[in-house]
Amino acid sequence: MTDHLDDLLPPVEYITDAYTGSDKLKDKRVLITGGDSGIGRAVALHMAREGARVAILYHSDTDSAAETRAGIEAEGAEALIMQGDIGNSDSCAVTVAAVVDAWGGIDVLVNNAGMQMPFKRQADISDAVWQKHFDVNMNGIFYTSRAALEHMSEGASIINTTSLNAYVGDAALVPYTATKGAVVAYTRALALELMDRGIRVNQVAPGPVATEIQQVFNDFDEKMLKEMSSPMGRLGQPRELGPAYVFLACQDSSFVTGQTLHVNGGIIVNG
């Protein structure tokens, strides 16, 4: 994060010593898109601590990806780090193929890669920007899931990252909110499609969380950053999201599919 952003948001916390792994994902083969930072890195570290082999797809921040690799390996887990474009179908297929070549299949897919850009009015949103939101936030989920499902079997789990905004809206994040609403619908439909195959599909809907994605507000409206909070009076931390993904990935949630875990600090959405 930039020095200015550090003044407004707390330091990012990915995992703590208080989280004790218990082999809930021992030897599971995990692919996480957008796994180099924020919630994605927290998920990677928590799943590694649970005994999984963890592959991440990242876009361009090689330093952040290297830090995540180091964190995964510090947990005693195998790490596979790949650079690619989540909005490109071929790139997603190549990523999945690399995981399969290395480990023989995929047991858990976490579709987490995302981007957001704020706008004050619809007239400011170009066709290209609108399309980019859908390429990254929604199309990438479809491309990666489609490719991965050829290598997933009964007992596997797909976990998508949607957002609180899909349920309550956000005046400054209309393209982002629209894509996250699409993720909700896709998750529910795919869960029904895969029911007979014994593959569960769920999603996590984070509320306001202290991650790098909030940097977009730095030059847009500093007031929004200062006021970003929850009924708990604070932002969430990525480390508080990681265990939700672990739950949906492991057999503790064997009777859960098509559902949303709202991790948002007490914001009631009834969705």
UniProtKB/TrEMBL annotation:
Keywords: Oxidoreductase. InterPro entries: NAD(P)-bd_dom_sf, Sc_DH/Rdtase_CS, SDR_fam. GO terms for molecular function: oxidoreductase activity, acting on CH-OH group of donors. It holds the Pfam family adh_short_C2. The keyword Ribonucleoprotein does not apply. Gene3D superfamilies: NAD(P)-binding Rossmann-like Domain. Belongs to the short-chain dehydrogenases/reductases (SDR) family. PANTHER family: NADPH-DEPENDENT ALDEHYDE REDUCTASE 1, CHLOROPLASTIC, NADPH-DEPENDENT ALDEHYDE REDUCTASE-LIKE PROTEIN, CHLOROPLASTIC-RELATED. This is SDR family NAD(P)-dependent oxidoreductase. It comes from Thalassococcus profundi.
